[in-house]
Amino acid sequence: SCSSNLIRATLFPGDGIGPEIAESVKKVFSAADVPIEWEEHFVGTEVDPRTQSFVTWESLESVRRNKVGLKGPMATPIGKGHRSLNLTLRKELNLYANVRPCYSLPGYKTRYDDVNLVTIRENTEGEYSGLEHQVVRGVVESLKIITRQASLRVAEYAFYYAKTHGRKRVSAVHKANIMQKTDGLFLKCCREVAEKYPEIKYEEVVIDNCCMMLVKNPTLFDVLVMPNLYGDIISDLCAGLIGGLGLTPSLNIGEGGIALAEAVHGSAPDIAGKVSIKDISSLKHLKCNLANPTALLLSAVSMLHHLDLTDKADMIQDAVLKTIAEGKYRTGDLGGSATTTEFTKAIIGHL
Amino acid sequence: SCSSNLIRATLFPGDGIGPEIAESVKKVFSAADVPIEWEEHFVGTEVDPRTQSFVTWESLESVRRNKVGLKGPMATPIGKGHRSLNLTLRKELNLYANVRPCYSLPGYKTRYDDVNLVTIRENTEGEYSGLEHQVVRGVVESLKIITRQASLRVAEYAFYYAKTHGRKRVSAVHKANIMQKTDGLFLKCCREVAEKYPEIKYEEVVIDNCCMMLVKNPTLFDVLVMPNLYGDIISDLCAGLIGGLGLTPSLNIGEGGIALAEAVHGSAPDIAGKVSIKDISSLKHLKCNLANPTALLLSAVSMLHHLDLTDKADMIQDAVLKTIAEGKYRTGDLGGSATTTEFTKAIIGHL
Ligand SMILES: CC(C)[C@H](C(=O)O)[C@@H](O)C(=O)O
Ligand SMILES: CC(C)[C@H](C(=O)O)[C@@H](O)C(=O)O
To answer: Is beta strand A95-103 parallel, antiparallel or unpaired with respect to A116-122?
Structure first.
């Protein structure tokens, strides 16, 4: 089945509901005749000394080789002496930009109905340096590191993204009135890059004010670019505007042309593999589930865009959005009672 | 006029629209027979070497003596060699907790209609340490400092506040999954204090998730307590839910029983002292303005609560809320066309 026309992509189904929503993506991709061959990798059962985490070295090699992958949720096993799975992937694959398009889903009502923005988060440094220590008893400090290299890199990507996606404005989010050196350097880099894109409007907005404006009127923003922690906060806030992390795609851009799409919601072990009452009574499915695969499907769509498989991307995105808009087959988190299988079938029906 | 029955309070009218909204507070207080005598202090015209800022030493002494004050917006003059006015006040007066009650204003419609929470922000350390330096060219770092002393102090205040204000739950906002030492210490202190308040439910919520939950359903929260920067972000986000900083009161609690109420919005130099067309044509007022004094009035109400002048506090708050709810005399920022003077008069009419 491995023909030379197929693009190989790494698939991390992840844990919890991960395998169930990954199954949905595989089904939809195959129904849509997407020329992708999955190379599946699971989280290891013990710490791999080469990665210091449960992420196996082989799986990293797979992404490095394929340059493209899709990842379900991974819960970091509790215990000492290993790194968070998500952070391991970011560090080892140098996933420097986390891109999250965030738009209101037609027919799925929230308090906001015209959200259409993209958050681009620096994903490797800042408050995530891991450098912390106790100065004296009762006094601890964490280091926030900002480098010119990483700031330029993510700023470049943000403007490149804006330009190639027909976006008109890039807003750099910061707190340089307080952190003049770190956030100041970040802004300086954004300004340098902005000069090379005169057709894109560039502006700066303080994070506290940004959050206030986002909840008052998110249409004020187009592309937002920011250091790591602000990106963590603002991307989740934005997801909340349109319904939550179960609905928002995410794509990580890494050095060397790597792109790893990712559902950023949790692995929801409480519903993973659960059979709904409906299914038990009808006994139609041996294994069916309650999870919503939308975030992973739309992340897979981001991956297809990245691969320039625009037709397939649009076709799948349309089918997902139509299924949600129609409202007949929604999963429980969206107030419906469809199983993952039923929801997936409905999407395939709309392809 | 200085009788021993009067409580002396320091008043910083501030700059920009500050004097105009302070005037509104003075009028309302006097109409409501509030037993307060104001001791007015203005920002200096040059840097006071004892404070290293435009805040004068005398004004700080006034707050220290009176233990209570009210502050309008202060824009930090541009230039080197001095500290931000707001930060100077926080540091010099050891204003360790910033308390912002945030509730939907009856009759003033936003996307949210049942917000009722309080954010309590650690106000002296964390990301605001001011400690930053360049490691090598292109690499800068900022230090976030968390101490046991300041964390316990703000946690104590949060639980004390919850208990004395009939609140049921305190949520500590953090990012201890990433900053295990700093935010970890903050949480540890919150947990210690929580044990002393078994009647108050205690929970912990990661900041990104907190922001998402706040925009989806703010009624999930009651009292939120957090380190400095998270407080900065979340308190502005919450203000956005109910209409913006022009509507939200703020009270700073300092060591030694000091309380400094404060309007946290900007000084809006663009509308300060402006006369609306209406006023020009009627020529009724020599000086009238467009600013909304609500945030300063409600901050003054917080100050009265702090002084246990509950009746006066309730009376003024009711009058402000009634005036806004009625909608006849709203200032421009709320979509109305009333001047500050007219709005203030309407409030006095409702006392
Ligand atoms: C789980 C956590 C470490 C992670 C982060 O903070 O980056 C998550 O919030 C995310 O946004 O992917
Ligand atoms: C003006 C700025 C320094 C200040 C802060 O960050 O604390 C402001 O945002 C606030 O919340 O009072």
So the answer is: antiparallel
If you take atom 7 of ligand 1, which residue's CA is the nearest one? Answer: A232
Q: Which long-range contacts (CB under 8 A, 24 or more apart) does A200-203 make?
A: A200/A159, A200/A162, A200/A163, A200/A167, A200/A168, A200/A169, A200/A170, A201/A168, A201/A169, A201/A170, A202/A169, A202/A170, A202/A171, A202/A172, A203/A169, A203/A170, A203/A171, A203/A172
A6 lines ligand 2 (CB under 6 A): no
Residue A243: HSE in the Cβ half-sphere, 13 Å Cα cutoff: 22
The model's pLDDT over A162-188, given as tens digits with 9 standing for 90+, comes to 999 999 999 999 999 999 999 999 999
Ligand 1 proximity of B217 Cβ (cutoff 6 Å) = no
The answer, as to whether pTM is greater than 0.85, is yes
**A112 interfaces chain B, CB cutoff of 8 Å:** yes
Is the confidence at residue A282, as pLDDT, over 80? Answer: no
Long-range contact list for B6-9, CB < 8 A, 24+ apart?
A: B6/B35, B6/B36, B6/B37, B7/B35, B7/B36, B7/B37, B7/B66, B7/B68, B7/B307, B8/B36, B8/B37, B8/B38, B8/B39, B8/B65, B8/B66, B9/B36, B9/B37, B9/B38, B9/B39, B9/B66, B9/B68, B9/B69, B9/B70, B9/B303
* Contacts with B235 from chain A: Cβ below 8 Å: 208
User: Which amino acid makes up residue B85?
Assistant: L
> Which pLDDT belongs to residue A96?
98
Per-residue pLDDT tens digits for A236-280: 999 999 999 999 999 999 999 999 999 999 887 777 776 554 544
Mean pLDDT, residues B332-342: 93
Backbone angles phi, psi at B246, to 5 degrees: -70, -10
Name B283's Cβ contacts closer than 8 Å, sequence gap at least 6. none
Q: Is B262 in the pocket of ligand 2 (CB under 6 A)?
A: no
For chain B, say whether A80 makes contact (Cβ under 8 Å): no
* Residue in chain B lying closest to A136 (CA): B147
Residues of A in contact with B234 (CB under 8 A): 211
Residue B310, min C-alpha distance to chain A (Å): 31
| Nearest residue on chain A to B243, alpha-carbon basis | A216
**Amino acid (one-letter) located at B49:** P
- Could you identify the atom of ligand 2 that is nearest to the CA of residue B76? 1
User: Tell me, what's the pLDDT at B79?
Assistant: 67
Model confidence pLDDT, tens digit, residues A213-235 = 999 999 999 999 999 999 999 99
Using CB atoms, pick whichever of A177, A213, A240 lies closest to residue B216.
A240
CB-nearest to A138 from B127, B135, B149 is B149
CA of B232 from ligand 2 middle (Å) equals 7
pLDDT digits (tens, 9 = 90+) for B60-85: 999 999 999 999 998 877 766 677 88
Mean pLDDT to the nearest integer, B297-312: 97
SS3 content of chain A, % helix, strand, coil (to 5): 40, 20, 40
Q: Each residue of A6-63: pLDDT tens digit?
A: 999 999 999 889 999 999 999 999 999 999 999 999 988 888 899 888 899 999 999 9
In this complex, how many residue pairs, one in chain A and one in chain B, have their CB atoms less than 8 Å apart? 159
- Distance from C-alpha of A14 to C-alpha of A26, rounded to nearest angstrom: 14
